[in-house]
Design the sequence.
């Protein structure tokens, strides 16, 4: 798929590649935090995004969980939305035409309760104009295997990846769950199964209790933690995964600023996704993009690619000025 | 519908009780495009904690580019907001949501309870500005006690619409519920009712409206993260069996679209 990427020769080269997909810049919006993009059209310039990743799509529409679905926590929030979405068919007819008109890569996040569902969604998205990539959410429970999340078992994670790859005609990025004991094992499993890229992290499972009523703060009792609170965990996992795979890694987790994004790139991320920050600042992704551009200019980088994985691991020299 | 993210200057701070505040914010783009019943999302601080914006209905707007919000300190966000200083800048996102559908030909009854009075001033003012006559209209306001009500009355009174009040402790107006005064006035045929307040009040208002066969629009509240349809956190069960999202489908609904427990 070719996109017309307007380039100003005076601007730093921010292009990065996710498999065969070239992005004008490394800034994407994370699934579930940006609706179907149109919600943000008046508040930022959508055409500048490196890519947009839309709300997770299942084979059939899902109503989602009862309220309360969200609760704020220290430097973050818990959500249990319950994967509410319009389903793949309505997504294609109702949401894709607008997204396609944005002339930016559209990456469709997909989710299912069985391998067959994942495969079927990938099949229905094949050939749909404007779809530039698929991001596979493997944090869903495998209904056929007793509800254990696909993403917590290497063999199941690999099987999902292979099922989607069988039908996908665009690069496939697998979004890893951080709720595992060794994320590198899952990362290697999905790479071997044919993933073109890996994105991480999805939310960390958490819980909050409302003391006055002695009830869980969420109707679902547990939910996914996101926001700045999870950034150190995400950064650590991106670092670990980038060292063991050779496919591009996309960093997600508490990114609010260009500094946050650049730290993820140093840790090994080729690109980043802006998630919860979109709720607080609807133009967060554009702010991050401008900040990355300013950094590239200030550091006189020929290409932003030069900082990917550029974390310095030589002897640590304490900087007395920071003490 | 166009929305704006503005750095609003705090133009005025009014404290009515220990916990009830009214802020006047200079945010010209939002003020110029807001309609009654819409809301704004305010970032109470600049740091990462508290992280999320807080929703507030628009109390009134001015031609000078100002909006007002009326709120009570109920948690950390409002506690911080109550500490703002004059001339401080705070980020305001709006106007958001679907507001009231004004019926300019019907006699109108505006019912506000507690903090639910907040959006009703904007509504009453627009109703007054756009209608040929408000002679058949009523504004009915209820609160726990006089302190929570009296400071808000002047702005309503200057519209000249008949105004009745109720307080739980009888310190101002009718001793009891605002729904009781609603039942005591004879609602003209073909009336339209607008209500905002605690859930039991809105359920009660809707019950009266149903019995009389007159339409009732309510403005409801919800916890929300984004205010613009992205997080899907503000779901509320709808009568048709699914969920509705208060931020984009509301906050104003025909009361019959929602489920009420009374």
Sequence:
């Amino acid at each position: 798929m070719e996109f017309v990427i307007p380039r100003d020769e005076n601007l730093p080269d921010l292009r990065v590649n996710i498999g065969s997909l070239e992005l004008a810049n490394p800034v994407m919006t994370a699934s579930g935090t940006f609706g179907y993009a149109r919600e943000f059209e008046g508040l930022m310039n959508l055409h500048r995004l490196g890519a947009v990743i839309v709300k997770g799509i299942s084979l059939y529409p899902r109503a989602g969980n009862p309220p309360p679905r969200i609760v704020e926590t220290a430097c973050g929030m818990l959500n249990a939305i319950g994967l509410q979405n319009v389903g793949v068919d309505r997504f294609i007819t109702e949401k894709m035409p607008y997204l396609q008109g944005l002339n930016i890569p559209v990456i469709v996040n997909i989710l299912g309760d069985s391998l067959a569902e994942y495969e079927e969604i990938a099949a229905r998205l094949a050939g749909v104009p404007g779809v530039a990539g698929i991001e596979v959410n493997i944090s869903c429970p495998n209904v056929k295997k007793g509800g254990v999340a696909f993403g917590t078992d290497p063999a199941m994670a690999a099987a999902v990846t292979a099922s989607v790859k069988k039908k996908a005609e665009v690069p496939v990025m697998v979004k890893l769950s951080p709720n595992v004991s060794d994320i590198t094992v899952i990362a290697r499993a999905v790479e071997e199964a044919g993933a073109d890229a890996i994105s991480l992290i999805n939310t960390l499972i958490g819980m909050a209790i409302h003391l006055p009523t002695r009830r869980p703060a969420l109707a679902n009792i547990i939910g996914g933690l996101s926001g700045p609170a999870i950034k150190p965990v995400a950064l650590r996992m991106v670092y670990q995964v980038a060292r063991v795979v050779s496919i591009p890694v996309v960093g997600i987790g508490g990114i609010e600023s260009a500094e946050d994004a650049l730290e993820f790139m140093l840790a090994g991320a080729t690109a980043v996704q802006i998630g919860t920050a979109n709720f607080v600042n609807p133009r967060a992704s554009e702010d991050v993009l401008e900040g990355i551009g300013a950094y590239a200019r200030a550091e006189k980088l020929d290409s932003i690619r030069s900082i990917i994985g550029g974390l310095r691991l030589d002897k640590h020299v304490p900087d007395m000025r920071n003490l | 519908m166009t929305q704006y993210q503005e750095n609003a200057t705090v133009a005025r701070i009014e404290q009515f009780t220990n916990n009830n505040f009214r802020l006047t914010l200079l945010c010209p783009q939002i003020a110029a495009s807001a309609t009654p019943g819409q809301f704004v999302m305010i970032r109470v601080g600049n740091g990462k904690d508290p992280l999320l914006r807080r929703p507030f209905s628009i109390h009134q707007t001015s031609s000078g580019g100002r909006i007002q919000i009326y709120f009570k300190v109920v948690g950390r966000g409002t506690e911080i907001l109550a500490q703002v200083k004059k001339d401080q800048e705070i980020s305001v996102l709006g106007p958001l949501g679907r507001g009231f559908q004004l019926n300019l030909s019907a006699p109108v009854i505006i019912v506000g309870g507690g903090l639910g009075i907040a959006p009703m001033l904007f509504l009453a003012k627009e109703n007054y500005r756009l209608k040929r006559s408000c002679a058949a209209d009523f504004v009915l306001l209820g609160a726990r006690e006089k302190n929570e009500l009296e400071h808000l009355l002047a702005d309503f009174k200057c519209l000249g619409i008949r105004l009745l009040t109720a307080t739980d402790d009888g310190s101002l107006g009718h001793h009891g519920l605002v729904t009781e005064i609603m039942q005591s006035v004879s609602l003209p045929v073909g009336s339209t009712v607008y209500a905002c307040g605690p859930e039991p009040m809105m359920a009660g208002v809707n019950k009266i409206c149903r019995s009389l066969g007159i339409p009732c629009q309510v403005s409801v509240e919800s916890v929300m993260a984004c205010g613009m349809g992205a997080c899907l956190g503000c779901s509320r069960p709808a009568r048709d069996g699914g969920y509705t999202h208060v931020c984009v489908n509301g906050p104003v609904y025909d009361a019959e679209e929602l489920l009420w427990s009374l």
User: Anything to note?
Assistant: The domain at 16-64+82-205+225-322 of chain A is CATH 3.20.20.70 (TIM Barrel). Chain A touches chain B through 36 residues (CB under 8 Å). The CA atoms of residues 56 and 224 of chain A lie 15 Å apart. Chain A has one domain: 16-64+82-205+225-322.
